[in-house]
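Example record used in the benchmark description.
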Amino acid sequence: MHPSFAPRPFGSTGLTTSALGLGSSPGLPGKDVERAFERGVNFFLWGSLRRRDFARGLANLAKQHRPEMIVAVQSYTRWPSLMEWSVDRALRTMRTDYVDALCLAWWNGPPPRRIVDAAIALKDKGKVKSLMISCHHRPAFEGFIADPAIDALMIRYNAAHPGAEREVFPHFDKRRPGTVSFTATRWGTLLDRKYVPEGERVPTSADCYRFALSSTSIDVCLAAPKDAAQLDQALVALERGPLDADEMAWMRRVGLAVRDAAAVRRRFSPIDMLDRLVSFSPCGGPKQLDAAR
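Model output (structure tokens):
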């Protein structure tokens, strides 16, 4: 493992995290979840799609290594009464008594106090150790950073969408929560030859993870391998370490081109759908949307 990508503090939570994290949604088999832990990965997100075999791998690890793991779960609920039910279901499936982080998912403005209070109640019961929030509207992060109830942030950050460097990271001089970057490959478009300019090398997933982790403002870059081969490629990032200056310039060129090409070639895509859903957030309307940059 490259020294720059060695385990590091997860903000001020008191937890120590690996630089690379794994998400459950693509369905990585449990045996590969266990193999990733053996290779130094200890951050696991039981995310939007809760795959049972992924949970089986976590349960096997937890038998001997639970204190060394960071297990996070997401809750998209807008009804406080459903939050504990969702967390309890996750705890049963993963065979653990607590989660290290509960992520209040997809809030593009301050969550209603009743949502935050429900999450804090789970902390008081010992079922949750810290609170995290995910957001696609970067200006909202300034308020989240200032809120002492929020221990960690999930931030969209990649070579095609580097705007967090301007709109989020500068606020960390006031308070430094834990940080998790997601969509490192921009939903795979950074890996797609048809979006990459002629004459430029096509990035690998490891290159995309290295881009995110080259920022000292990111503690964990979330990876989403679906099989052993994709996991092996992700783990390359831990070995190679940060991008050098030439690699960073290349990734920024490719990122800019991919963002622009994807916008032209895809009139409707999963990204468009996600961004349109954001516009219907109970926290605000379309003018809050910040998808272009």
